[in-house]
Specification:
Blueprint (H helix, E strand, L loop, with lengths): L1 H13 L5 E7 L6 E13 L2 E12 L3 E3 L2 E7 L3 E14 L6 E15 L4 E12 L4 E13 L1
Antiparallel strand pairs: 1-2, 1-9, 2-3, 3-4, 3-5, 4-6, 5-6, 6-7, 7-8, 8-9
């Protein structure tokens, strides 16, 4: 019985995974929320896959964020994720506009359900280049893989 449970656990890491994902991230790299698209890249190094994603967030019509992430994934249904990214950020409105770039990392976990639903969580350290400030965020993801 113990061997069967171990095999089922391992099968969750090597089962087929979706190649496209659309997900909503709450409290992630782009601040309060963002809508993101992710594409699995055709690069495999053993059990490690890679993906690229980009998203967008508009906060009270004054801040526009576009997080761009490249990450490694270990597993299929149960995924361990680690990535790096950059985020252009524009401040608009009130007759002025400003621009800055953030660099960020992402370390997290994601579960892909067989029906396509995806739930995840990630710790996201952000570095604001202009002010040399460091922030940490805890991003929550919900989306759909296809």
């Amino acid at each position: 019985m113990k061997a069967i449970l171990i095999l089922l656990f391992i099968a969750g890491f090597v089962a087929a995974q979706p190649t496209h994902t659309i997900y909503f991230q709450l409290l992630g790299a782009a601040g309060r929320y963002s809508l993101n698209y992710e594409q699995i890249l055709p690069i495999n190094a053993g059990m490690v896959g890679f993906s690229a994603s980009a998203g967008a967030s508009v906060d009270n019509n004054t801040v526009i964020d576009i997080p761009i992430l490249l990450q490694a994934q270990i597993g299929a249904r149960n995924q361990l994720l680690a990535g790096v990214g950059a985020e252009p950020e524009w401040y608009v409105g009130s007759g002025t506009s400003d621009y800055q770039t953030l660099l960020f990392g992402s370390i997290g976990y994601r579960h892909c359900f067989k029906m396509g639903l995806i739930l995840g969580i990630a710790v996201i350290p952000l570095y604001e280049i202009e002010t040399k400030s460091v922030y940490t965020s805890l991003g929550l993801n919900i989306g759909w893989g296809f």
